[in-house]
C-alpha cells in the first residue's frame, strides 16, 4: 500500500520511535500518547482492519498479541496493560492499517468505557 501511513512507518519511509520489529510485526510509540505508555503494534504487511482479516492473517494477529506483553514490560508497564484495536467507523478507527494500541504505565488506566 503505497499511500498508507503505517505501511510507510513500517518501511521506514516516515520516521517513528520504534520499539520492536521482526519479519511480521513492527511496533512504535504513538505520536499522541493517551497514557504514559502508549505503543502501536502493527503487521508489516498491510491489513486494513479487524473487519478485513482472513484465515491467512491468524498467525500475525497472534504475534501482535504475543509481543504486546513483552513490549509493555520493557517500556514501563510491567504490571499489566490494555490492548485496544479500534475497528471501522463504529470503533472510531482513524488509521486504516490494523494496529493494536498497548496502553499502560505506573497507574491503572481506568474503567474500560464510560457506560451509556
Ligand atoms: P486509531 O484511532 O486509528 O485507533 O488510532 C490511530 C493512532 O495513530 C492515534 O492514537 C494517533 O495518535 C496515532 N498516529 C497517527 N499518526 C501517527 C504518526 O504519524 N506517527 C505515530 N507514531 N502515531 C500516529
Ligand atoms: Zn498499510
Automatic annotation (TrEMBL):
Lineage: Bacteria, Pseudomonadati, Pseudomonadota, Betaproteobacteria, Rhodocyclales
Active site: 99 (tele-amp-histidine intermediate)
Name listed for the protein in its UniProt record: Protein HitA
SUPFAM superfamilies registered for this protein in UniProt: HIT-like
Motif (Histidine triad motif): 97-101
Gene3D superfamilies: HIT-like
PROSITE patterns, A to Z: HIT_2
GO MF term list: catalytic activity
Organism: Candidatus Propionivibrio aalborgensis
InterPro entries noted in UniProt: Histidine_triad_HIT, HIT-like, HIT-like_sf
Pfam families registered for this protein in UniProt: DcpS_C (PF11969)
Domain HIT span(s) in chain numbering: 5-114
Signal peptide location: none
Superkingdom of the organism of origin: Bacteria
